[in-house]
Amino acid sequence: MEKTTEKIPTWSLCYLINDDASGLSDEEIQSINRWQKELGVQIVSPCMDDKCDTHPYFSHCPAFGLPTEVVDCDILYIQPTKQ
């Protein structure tokens, strides 16, 4: 298993962490699922400070999707094997 830190769109966190897709469009869900599958994502954990706060900021290049507000998240993943 590998670990990296990625810029994850804030709008996707409920789905990635709690599997709650309410409020997301089918296109957004497909974008998240594609990213998870391509990288073999197992766990998404937002990076927090000493007070357990995250620090959202705007990014032109999030891990997936269009430019948006993101938070840094630790990602545990397994690189999928190409068949």
Characterise the protein shown here.
- By secondary structure, this protein is an alpha+beta fold.
- The chain has one domain (2-77).
- The protein is built from two helices and four strands, in the order E-H-H-E-E-E.
- Strand 3 (57-59) and strand 4 (68-77) form a beta hairpin.
- The model has no long low-confidence stretch (mean pLDDT 95).
Quick gist of this model?
The chain has 83 residues and is an alpha+beta fold.
How many beta-strand runs? 4
The description of the largest β-sheet is: 4 strands, antiparallel
Strand content: 25-35%
Poorly predicted runs: none
Number of separate structural domains: 1
What is the general shape? globular
- In round numbers, the mean pLDDT is 95
Structural class call reads: alpha+beta
As a whole number of angstroms, the C-alpha radius of gyration is 13 Å
- Characterize the quaternary organization of these chains: single chain
Q: Into which percent range does the helicity of residues fall? A: 10-25%
By DSSP (H or I, 4+ residues per run), the number of helices equals 2
* Distance, first to last CA: 19 Å
In sequence order, what are the helices and strands, one letter per element?
A: EHHEEE
Summarize the helices and strands and which ones pair or pack.
Elements: E1 2-9, H1 13-18, H2 26-39, E2 41-46, E3 57-59, E4 68-77
Antiparallel strand pairs: 1-4, 2-4, 3-4
Protein name: DUF6926 domain-containing protein
Domain DUF6926: 5-77
